[in-house]
Every structure is written in C-alpha cells, then in structure tokens.
Amino acid sequence: xxxxxxxxxxxxxxxxxxxxxxxxxxxxxxxxxxxxxxxxxxxxxxxxxxxxxxxxxxxxxxxxxxxxxxxxxxxxxxxxxxxxxxxxxxxxxxxxxxxxxxxxxxxxxxxxxxxxxxxxxxxxxxxxxxxxxxxxxxxxxxxxxxxxxxxxxxxxxxxxxxxxxxxxxxxxxxxxxxxxxxxxxxxxxxxxxxxxxxxxxxxxxxxxxxxxxxxxxxxxxxxxxxxxxxxxxxxxx
Amino acid sequence: xxxxxxxxxxxxxxxxxxxxxxxxxxxxxxxxxxxxxxxxxxxxxxxxxxxxxxxxxxxxxxxxxxxxxxxxxxxxxxxxxxxxxxxxxxxxxxxxxxxxxxxxxxxxxxxxxxxxxxxxxxxxxxxxxxxxxxxxxxxxxxxxxxxxxxxxxxxxxxxxxxxxxxxxxxxxxxxxxxxxxxxxxxxxxxxxxxxxxxxxxxxxxxxxxxxxxxxxxxxxxxxxxxxxxxxxxxxxxxxxxxxxxxxxxxxxxxxxxxxxxxxxxxxxxxxxxxxxxxxxxxxxxxxxxxxxxxxxxxxxxxxxxxxxxxxxxxxxxxxxxxxxxxxxxxxxxxxxxxxxxxxxxxxxxxxxxxxxxxxxxxxxxxxxxxxxxxxxxxxxxxxxxxxxxxxxxxxxxxxxxxxxxxx
Lengths: 237, 407
Known about the structure:
The complex is a heterodimer. Chain A is an alpha/beta fold.
C-alpha cells in the first residue's frame, strides 16, 4: 500500500477578538491508499477544520499537508481549486446539489470544470449514477429526490473525476437511519473496490463502518486505532 | 468549460427566476428604448428642418436691408429701407459680380385677402419672374408672374396651394377668379406646386404678385424687403457674398464694412444655425435618456448583488468542486451581460416602435438612426460588464468554507 495522505505537525490558528485559538494544535498522521478512515470527535474538537484542510478548502497556519505526493499547504486559490477538482471527491452533510438542476447535470459539474467534453460527461455521469442505483432518476431534479437519493447523487458526483480520496463530511447527518445505512454500505463497497474513504462524523455507529478511527479532542489526536468490531453492510443496488 | 456552456448556464439561471430577470431587464429596456426613441425623433425633426430650408432654394444668398440707426436707437434688422430695385439691377448687370446666376428682388408684406365670402391673412410677396427660379417654385396650374406682368403692373396674382384652398375651397380652380388685397382687385393666374411644410416655414400659404404692383399699390414704397440671389454653384457662395457685399457698399457710398446698411446671409448660414440648434436638442434628449440607462444599469447591479448573496452556497459548492475564480467571474459577468443585452435588444424594438408611432402622430419623417441603435446595443453590453463586474468579483472572492457554511 502506498501513502496517499501525509499530515505533519499541522496547526490551524484563528484569531478571534485578538485572542488566538488553535483549532488544530499539531496534528500528524498518514493515510494509505485504500483505507477507510473515520475522523471522530465532539463539536469544537477541530474535526471540521481538519476536514477543510484535507479537502484543500483551506491551508494550514503551519505544518505540511501532502496529498498524492503534492504539497498542498501553500497553494494559491486556483491551484487549490484544481486539487479539489482532480483529487478530492466531496460528499457533504447537506448534499449540496444545485437546486432545480437534474441529477445528470449535478454529477457532470466537476467534469465541466475540468473541461471534459459534453458527450463524455454525459456518458460518465450516467455510468456513476447507475453505479449508485439511480439509473431511473437521471433527469430528476434535486427536489424530486429523497435525502438518501440526493446523497447518492452526491456520491456519484464525487466519483466522476476518479479522485485520490473521497472526503465525506457527516454524510448521514441529514438522513434517517435506514437511508444512513444504505449510504454507508455504498461507502464500504467503494472502499472494497479500492477507493480511499475519509469520513468525518460524530456518531459512533456510523464511525463503526470504517476500518480505522481517528479521534480528536481540542485540536489534538487523542486516539488513532483500527476498528476491530467493524459493522459490515451489504450494498444492494 | 467554454464560453458557450457558460452562456447556456447563465440563460438557465436567468430563466429560473423570470419575474426578477424581467424586472431587472425593464430598467435597461426603458433606458435603451428612450435613448433610441429620443435620438430618432431629434434626428427626424432635424431632417425636416433641413429639407425645408433646402426647399427654399439652392445656393441661395439673401440680402436684407440693415436695421435703421437713428442716433443710439437701433431698429430691428430688416426694417431698413436701404435696398432698392436699382441695387438689384446693379447686381445683375455689374461686371464686378461674376458669380450670380439670377437676382430676385422681393417686397413682402402681410395682408388681409378677400375672395368672395372667404378671407384670410397671409403673406403677399411682390416678385419678378426670377423668383420662381431662385426659390425653386413651379406652378401646378396656370402661369407664374411674367416680365410683362411686372413691367405692365398687371393686377394679377399667383396663389400658394394652401391659400387657394383657404380662399376658394378644395377642388375649385381659382384661375381667372379675382381676389382683393388691401382693396386692390387682382386676377388669379396660377397656383404653385405644394412644397409642404408647416408653421413658420409654410411656403404654400403665400400670394405672389408682380413686384411693381406690390410696391405701388400694396406697400406704397420703392424699397425692397430683400434681394434673393442664386449663386452659380455651391463653391462660389463665399465669393458671391463678397462680390455683392463690395458692390453694395460702393453703391451705398460706404467704406467700412462694419457700417454696412445691409446684411447678406447664405442658406448655409441658416442651415448650420438650425442644424446646430437641433443637434444640441438631440444631444440634450439623448443625455436625459442616458440617465435612465444609467439608472437601469444600477438596477442590474443591485439585482446581481442580491443574486450573489442569495447564491452564496451555490458559489461555495461550485468552488469546492473545482470552479476557478475566473470561471465564477465569467459566469456572473455573462449573466449580467445576457441580462443587459437582451434588455437592450428589447429596448431597441421598443424605441424604434415608439419613435415610429410618435413621428407618425407628429407627421415627422421617420428617421431610424442606425448608429444610435448600434451604440445602444453596445452600451447595454458595456452596462452589463460595468455593473456586473463588482458583483462577479464579490462572488469569485467568496471563500468556499464560508460560502458552504452560509445559511
């Protein structure tokens, strides 16, 4: 297995009213290709900040972050946009699909920004929507889909650019339990197919689906261990 | 991601909120529409005035008597008595004047004219046959004043078509009928062809009589009201003006041109004065309309700023999926440009229609100003860029994290 993420002594300091607050206070870890990692912690632990850094949405105050052998720590806005486009597949808690836009178009969006021609985009988007079991919903707009279906559209969107990592931020936070488990089984299957999955969550039974759990508190890693009692769900398409 | 796709994206977004898009466009529609309508109307009236001045005659010079100076009291220009028939004859015969084609001495007055039970107040001009030539008059029926009429002081008159209708009614031939002007009975021998025009420029509401009749019977003086001259060509107008000027100075025993008791102005002088006045008027109208366009542009900016705030999450999402700054800028700019350009196009249609309707109602010639239309479309596009720029920059500079968190 090869190393895909290397986080070294990363600090993120915000100054709030003249006072400096370290959201991340010297965090170091590595993630290998093909891992399924859950990052846990109570609110205020710094897990959202970490997710933003891993997702190249932000840069650290100090320390280095290497993604797929590229140092992301000191990139410009446009370089970060390029990294997000090519290397990271985002899945958000609130799904974040474009409103009044079809599933097909939503899934095509990252490919559009990458400059992939329209016919190829359509083909790929259709393929990935079929993969997450939404073959019949290609032309449905977001509001015509259930929460679980919307999140599956988001997963299809995250997969289209063949990213180095899938980065999920509380992916089941807005879903009822049965749909949550449906989504988790998709993640497990994608992981089995070789995708590297990093998931931020505060729910232990969601984290239980991951192979490894990193726990944060007050901006520091307090626990980083393999998950022995892993919950496995079979994905039914 | 190419420009066509961005364009289609913008169209898609704009059709999502039709009401707002329509209202934002309305400002530009009104702005562009009024620019075009007002400029077209201005140019139409300019055209009309020009054609009327042109119809007075070509290469026309007019000599008017200077104002009478009596001590420090100066009378109105043209009220003088310094021009005589002898002056006119001198211009015609002098060897020093080589550039004049024909000379038309004129005496004009306003008089009450009676024909049977009808009467009208109109302009009566005492003329020689040269008048028709210099002022480009033709007769529709009968004949114009002839040399025999003038030398024999024959009591005849040629009517303008408007006067003929006023005195004798529509469809009646007045030839051979008699009219009374200041108690002088005149026989109608001709009707001139209509030249069109209205108000001050109405050349159709005139009566022409032999110069001698006008001088002796109607005005009772041997002075001329003006001498109209036709120069041989447009190129020699200035020379003609000088030649006639010096001849008259010499005849009036004056040495200093500033003391001249007459003035000579060419049709070009009148034309350029009138053109200047109407074009000032046109730019004034255009300026007022441009203000409404500016207000329309600010309306667009306002809507775009609201849109950026409203779509903060969407912008954050697009950026997190890899949209670079310039793509976001382009998206919002194109939206603004599409908004203003479509507004501009509709505005052109509205403006052209409005100017057509108004010019028809005011019976002005319908002048479509293509430069104004081109300019208006260009300006509407530029309005989009100018007023879309700030909102687009604002959108592009949103931090994706902040934008995604925005509720």
